[in-house]
Q: What sequence folds into this?
């Protein structure tokens, strides 16, 4: 089983490298469209792009919605719930440091769900790795934003609630994908995820009275294209493959590597500072992910 073992060790590095860029390009997206309207456009176009890909590789197109109900629930959780309620507070001006710390709890949350409901064992090394990773994320964010995490005027209960909904959505989504989804229909299942997420984001956009007017610029078009091809197709299909081969708790631990990569990317792209404290936190993140993923079973 050397092939799957090698894949499950290397794929997380590629996934987090791709996924971290989403927080960079989101900066351009949110300046030109409201959160759920933008996500509806992104997911709809992704579904359209996936259809010819599925036909070309000889996979089955969905014919029975009921058979794909679990894929659709996963899509609403992973895409609409996580990204929608993540972009919303950021659009409202909540500092990224606050959002990153709250979302950083996600691997611990997913591990708890996996232990309780699908019997994944929480050994000492795995638990140590998850806790170490969270401490590392906290240090990275504190090193970048300071002890107040970039917050000057206080965090409203409403914005805190949005971040918690986002956290709960991704943690539950990873667990749900592992437990209920047919892992053999990867591309077909992913297509159904985006179809469901498109409808869900459209509903939220309607009831939140978001503007359907989009300001098209070259930077926005490039950011949207990358989020469709690089993230919604490339990174998400990769994530679904990793979930198929690995335990939900171990898979979630790799999200600890996203904040450090975002900080590094912002350092080179936007000349943001990269202090020694943040670098130390990044090392802890790497150690935590390593400990949580030792002796992966397929």
A:
């Amino acid at each position: 089983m050397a092939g799957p073992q090698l894949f499950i060790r290397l794929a997380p590095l590629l996934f987090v490298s791709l996924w971290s860029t989403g927080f960079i390009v989101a900066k351009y997206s949110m300046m030109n469209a409201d959160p759920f309207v933008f996500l509806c456009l992104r997911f709809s176009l992704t579904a359209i792009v996936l259809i010819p890909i599925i036909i070309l590789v000889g996979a089955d197109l969905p014919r029975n919605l009921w058979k794909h109900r679990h894929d659709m629930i996963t899509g609403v959780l992973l895409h609409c719930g996580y990204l929608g309620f993540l972009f919303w507070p950021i659009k409202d001006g909540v500092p990224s440091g606050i959002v990153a710390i709250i979302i950083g709890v996600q691997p611990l949350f997913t591990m708890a769900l996996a232990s309780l409901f699908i019997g994944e064992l929480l050994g000492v090394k795995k638990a140590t790795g998850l806790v170490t990773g969270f401490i590392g994320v906290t240090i990275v964010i504190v090193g970048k934003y300071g002890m107040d995490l970039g917050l000057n005027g206080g965090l409203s209960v409403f914005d805190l609630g949005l971040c918690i909904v986002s956290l709960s959505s991704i943690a539950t989504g990873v667990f749900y994908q592992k437990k209920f989804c047919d892992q053999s229909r990867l591309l077909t299942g992913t297509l159904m995820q985006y179809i469901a997420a498109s409808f869900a984001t459209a509903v939220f956009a309607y009831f939140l009275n978001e503007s359907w007017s989009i300001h098209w610029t070259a930077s926005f078009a490039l950011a949207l294209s990358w989020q469709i091809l690089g993230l919604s197709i490339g990174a998400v299909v990769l994530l679904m493959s990793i979930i198929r081969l690995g335990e939900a708790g171990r898979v979630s631990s790799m999200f600890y590597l996203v904040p450090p990569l975002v900080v590094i990317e912002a350092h080179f792209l936007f000349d943001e500072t990269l202090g020694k404290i943040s670098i130390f936190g990044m090392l802890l993140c790497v150690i935590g992910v390593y400990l949580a993923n030792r002796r992966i079973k397929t």
